[in-house]
Every structure is written in structure tokens, then in C-alpha cells.
Design a protein that fits this description.
Two copies of one chain form a homodimer. With 287 residues, chain A is of the alpha/beta class. Chain A has nine helices and twelve strands. In chain A, strands 3, 4, 5, 6, 7, 8, 9, 10, 11 and 12 form a ten-stranded mixed beta sheet that branches. In chain A, a hairpin with a 2-residue loop joins strand 1 and strand 2. Chain A starts with a helix and ends with a helix. The structure holds a DNA duplex (30 and 30 nucleotides).
Amino acid sequence: MELHQLRYFSAVADTGSFSRAAEKCHVSQPSLSQQIQKLESELGGRLFDRLGRSVRLTDLGEAFLPRARSVLHELSSAKDELSERLQSESGPVVIGAIPTVAPYWLAQRLATFSRKFPKVHLTIAEEITPVLLDRLRAGSVDLAVLALPIRGHEFDAHPLFTERLYAALPKTHKLARRPALQLADLRRDPFLFLRDGHCFRDSAVAACNRARLDPRVVFESGHLSSLLAMVGAGMGVSLVPEMAVDKSKPCRFVRIADPQAQRTIAAAVLRGRTLNRGSRALLSHLR
Amino acid sequence: MELHQLRYFSAVADTGSFSRAAEKCHVSQPSLSQQIQKLESELGGRLFDRLGRSVRLTDLGEAFLPRARSVLHELSSAKDELSERLQSESGPVVIGAIPTVAPYWLAQRLATFSRKFPKVHLTIAEEITPVLLDRLRAGSVDLAVLALPIRGHEFDAHPLFTERLYAALPKTHKLARRPALQLADLRRDPFLFLRDGHCFRDSAVAACNRARLDPRVVFESGHLSSLLAMVGAGMGVSLVPEMAVDKSKPCRFVRIADPQAQRTIAAAVLRGRTLNRGSRALLSHLR
DNA sequence: TACAATAGATAGGCACAGCCTATGGCAGAA
DNA sequence: TTCTGCCATAGGCTGTGCCTATCTATTGTA
């Protein structure tokens, strides 16, 4: 059974004539006759009675007609739905982000994006990098915003920007008024770091290492805001990315002058993965 | 878009692999790949992401899959339903019959038929011959039981049986005790006939004409039972077919000896019309 | 790092299915 | 009767879906 046979069948039922149905279907009358015969022989019975001048549905044809119609209709409506879906930026998008980006830079960008594309249904997953990469692989995240470098050659990373690192100091810290400082200046201070697994911890530790600094870690947390609260309370010092600098926090932020004290944020997608229009729009909006 | 493309698509979604899907569909992997590509280009977007080893549905594919499945399922269930319908004698049958057959011979035959084929939904239309022929032409009657001859070569008539004519006489009639009589014997009697249009009236009139009898008609009705009641009341005599002979009626029945005083009952169908199984079963049951 | 194995894409050739035109047969209209 | 309209049949052509062989890329292994 083939779809064009169903179309021919439906057309004959509509017009009550093989010739007019053939015209309607833009084929010759013999071709249409042939296909109707094939259909009939496959179904095992006549669909039409050929009564001299006119043609009329048999019982079998009467029973088959609504089914054939519904198949054709379903198919065309499915096609319409897909082309609709392809043209509009609607549809679900799952974006993943590391915790040191999600509430700062990303939150602002997503706010403007949602105003621009209200029909895109955005979901945000805040996870550490290895989890994000797994979810990219599994397809449960379309797009991940994280810090370079990432390991795994099955991803395409689009660098977004590079930002400097800042020291977060208690207001009473002796360096708190400096416009900038060297990491080595903090050699004596107790450090507050993110928990292991957070890539920003790695960035911070790497920067310390390069400055020949072996930080004494007195507190670990899963979120920068907790660290900053602790810093404000005088527990020690911390390192934060520029985007987390927030004058309203109860601590001072001083730029780290060391040239390597920086991180690069990128948007990563699984290579070969087809992004829907919403995801593509989001990607170009982030860049 | 073609049905085999939908089948291939569904198989790939099932197996998560082009090769295994091809195996399942009994085609080579390149053929299947080719068809998926055609489908994708027709729909305007990728249905699968080819990720090295594995294959995964895109958003578009995810959206299309249930539609494709439902189309395939609907088609196969329609096919099943039709073959079911072809095999069983269920389904509606409309049988037409002239009023001088319907309540007598036909009623009995239909009773046994219904016991034998309880799933056939029988409808009976009692109409005069020209109406029956119109309804055969229009398809609103599948099978008509009527008296030969019929005019119109677009019908196939299957003769069922031939029966003799009987005179219906009041019990007090002087010929009421005879085993048989000639039509000419009724030359003096007033006649009760069916209304014009009933073919049995034509049979009776024709028999009279052949006997050189010009009947004086004093009553006309649309039904034989009315005539018999009138005969019983002594209003006159009438002619009835053998099947209407009923000892319980308040009149006598005497066989007409004239050789031409008979009628032939036949089952007629529209030539070229496909009968469903129920109608075919009924036709062979009547014969 | 190199090599083997696996999976999908591509290329080229073949066969058949569906289409076409021409024609036949049949029924209804003039 | 002839004429006309309609569906079926016949024969030939083209396109398309299928095949095998091969290529490319990724993955797993020595």
C-alpha cells in the first residue's frame, strides 16, 4: 500500500469518477486506474463498483474511506506542525551552566533573551563541569556555559569572553584600599575556596600555584555567595571572577594584577548535535 | 513522503542504529540511509543526529516520531479491519421485496436466515417493483425479491421458483368446493384486485386477458390481506398467488387450471454491483 | 601511536514500478 | 443506428529505490 494510492482512492470517492480524479491528481486516467486496482488486490476486495457511467463505493470502500482520509490528514498536519516548529523559535531549550556563571553574567543575559524570544521555553541546569559534559553527551542539556579548557574532543566550544580574577577581602583588610594587588601579597592570609569539582576552584588554585602561593584553606562551600558572606565576616580572603564583583556585598574587591589570573567562559555543544532554532538563537545571543 | 520512509524512520528510532534498522526492514544500510536523507530534506531538517557510534533523535525527530507511528498503526489496523470484514458475514444488508411476497414466502425464509447468520443486520423494504428497481440502481437496496419479468437490462435476475395462481372465493360461492377451476368460470363474478402499480395485479390481469375475461373490478387495495377479508365478507372474488393461500382465512382457495396462470419470483441485483458477504449468503440462502 | 573494527555516507549500476500514449470495450444519449 | 463518455488494457519509457563496493570517521585495543 502506498500513499499515492490512498490519495487516488480518496479523489475517486470525492469526484465519483476515475477520469476527474486523475485530473485532480495530475496523472493520467490509466495510471490512476492501475493504482486503484493494485490497492484493491492488496486489500482483497473491490473498493468501487464500476456501473457503466458512474462509479460508487462498495461496502469495503465505504469502510476504508475514513481510514484513508485520516491517514492522509494526519500526515499533512504532521508536516505542517514540523514546518511550524522549524520556523519559529519556540520549543524547549535546556541550558547548563557552572555555578560561578549562572547567577551572575548568565542571569542577566537570559533575562534579555527571554524578553526577545518569549516563546522559547528555557530551563537552566546549574551543575559542575563534568556533570554538564555528561549531560551534553546524553542530550539532556542542549548548550553548556562553562570555563575553558574542557577535556573531550567531542564538544565544540565557542569562547564568549575572558575576565580577570579579583580578591575578595574583609573591609578591614590592610590591602582593601589598593586598586590592585599581587597574589603573593596574600601569602599569610587564610583562604576560602569553592568545593572540589568546581572549575573555578581549579582556576583559583592554578593562579596561586603560578604565583608560588600555597593557600591555607579554612572554608569550602558550593557557592560563591556563601564565601563572600564569610569573607565579610572576617574569616579570610577569597578569589572571585570579575562577574561576581558586587559592591553591595560586605567586602572589598581588589583586582589581581598577575597576568595569568583570569578565566575564559565558553558555550559548549555536543559536536554533530542539531540545535533547534531556540538553542541557535540563544547561542548567538550569548556571543 | 512515502510510507517505507516512515517505516525506516520508525525502525531507526527503535533500534538507535541505521544498520540494525536496515536489517529489520530487510534492506541494505545505504538504501535506508538514502531514504532517511530524502525524508529529512523533504521535512526541511535533520531527524537524527549522527554522533559517531550512536544515532539519536533530534527535537524534530522526537516531534515527528509519534505522528509517523500513528500513521503506520492506523494503516495496519485499517487493513486488519477490512480483512476481518471480508471474512465474516457481518454488516448491513438491505433487502427489498414486493408486497405480495414479503409477508408470505420471504418472511419464512428470512427467519431461518437470521438464525443461521445472526451477525448480518437485515433491513427489509416492502415496495412495488418500480420503486425497488430505482432503489437497486441508487444502491439503497442490495437485493430485491420480485416477480418476473422486469424491464431494464442493468439488472441480473436469479429466478427462484414459479407458483400457480389461486382463486379466492367466499365460502358460499358455488365453485368453492371444486378442486380446480378455469378463469372463464368466474366471468360473472365481481373482482377485487390490488391497486395499480402492483405487479401481481398485472399478473392477474394478464391471466384474465388470456382467458378472454374482462373482470369487473369493485374494490382495490394495497394489500392482499385486505382483499381476502373483503372476499370473506362476500364482496366478490380475487386472485392470489399460491404462497398467500391460508386456510385460516374466512374464504376458500381454488387452484386455477389455466396453464398460464402463474408467476415466477426472482432475486434481482444491480449488474456490476459488488455484494458484501452477507448479501451473497442471503442470495444463496434464498435459491 | 598505530591498527583493527564498526557504523554511516557516497558512488555507480541495475531492475522494476509507476507513468505516459494509444487503443479497446461497453453503456448511455442523440 | 451512431456518437460520446468512461474505464480497462497494452506497450514502451523514465525515474527511483535498491544493490554492491568503497570511503570516511569514530571507537576500542595493542
